[in-house]
Amino acid sequence: QVQLVESGGGLVQAGGxxxxxxxxxxxTFSRYAMGWFRQAPGQEREFVSAISRNGDITDYADSxxxxxxxxxxxxxxxxxxxxxxxxxxxxxxxxxxxxxLYRRDRQSAYDYWGQGTQVTVSS
Length: 123
Prior knowledge:
The chain has no helices and 11 strands. The radius of gyration is 13 Å and the shape is globular. The protein is mainly beta.
């Protein structure tokens, strides 16, 4: 099984940028498709982005398309989410998730989750 640890969250002004990272360990990273999800206070967790095992397929929620970019480095066992043009509505705890199959936005199907990293966007 794989263990996931997110980092890179913080406080940023609207319009700013952040890059989230997700470090994987415990298994061969390239065996896993990955996803990013987020949960705002009082709301359900929602899909943000997903990437296939070799990075040739990526998907985004409409709310972040054109502003966020997902990528991975299988040689470093790392997943990234580059976020730009941040809005106060992007404020949430961001989670990375892993599964052997490409699950896209089906969060209940992901087997492994990190603990999350807080992103706060001030207006």
